[in-house]
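writing this on my phone so excuse typos. first protein, seq and then structure
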Amino acid sequence: MSWLPDDFVHPVHVPVPDTAVHLRPIREADTALDYPAVMGSRERLWEIFGPAWAWPKETMTYEEDRIDLLRHEKEIAAHQSFNYALLDEEETAILGCVYIDPPERTGSDGEVSWWVVDDLAGGEVERALEALVPQWIAADWPFQQPRYLGRDITWQDWLALPRAS
């Protein structure tokens, strides 16, 4: 059985209320926007995601990012996992990402995490995204027990949980 119902249709455009930004599935074609966003916030992102995902490496190249985004694009099409880019209205800049994944650890039916670029950390857009994501997941995704990594459970506590089978 898949982690999502066969008839599930993933959202393709999600406005973030009270901001000029939105979420949409990331694509390989976004590499030119994604690479500077990730590498420009790499140190803070490594503090968040490094222990669990070993990402983003200090030496990550543009080509490695392109390959990673192509993998994400294919996973989205196959409903294996989802990476949503946080974009400005004109889609000229990636400002963060939201990940929606099948559970790697026991105790949930979906695992959700997100980040914003350093310039937005602690600001209005991050607060709006923080408010939106749980509401969006509850309204548009078929999870009964979503887990918000780094929010309702620390990454360290998540890593200590048994792996999902």
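second protein below, same order as before
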Amino acid sequence: MADQVQGLDAAAFRSALARFPAGVTIVTTRSAGGTPHGFTASSFAALSLDPPLVLVCLDQGADCFPAFIAAEQFVVNIVTPAHAKLAMKFATKGEDKFAHGSFESDEGGHPILPDAAAVIRCELEQVVPGGDHVILIGRVHEARIGSGKPVMWYRGDFLYLGQSVT
């Protein structure tokens, strides 16, 4: 990333954004040929209750970008502390992401984490450009609740619920 972005100090911008705790998700899909794809995202949010819509942001430079743009469906797995190392692998380019973790397949063959804090299955509704990312808008078809607590990303590291911040 450049030191300056349109007159903005890029390092200061990244540091400011890091002060906002965000949930951590592993977003998955499969290609038409059945190959699983996924990425870690902390830019995830509810968009609408009626209709039920969520959004997640994907870097256009991600290895899995073409697979998600072509996908009809995707799954958002809300990460627990047990998935922290796995989330780091899914955030790394070139990593064999599905060699780790205990994924199962949903009815459509999409990878899910059965022990996630929640699993949200979506139909890809719209792809909206957003700078160096795209915003994937998904219509929620199913939401499963797990028993684990979610983990957050804060100041470049994982933050666990109940953990004090210094």
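The domain at 23-155 is CATH 2.30.110.10 (Pnp Oxidase; Chain A). thats all i got for now
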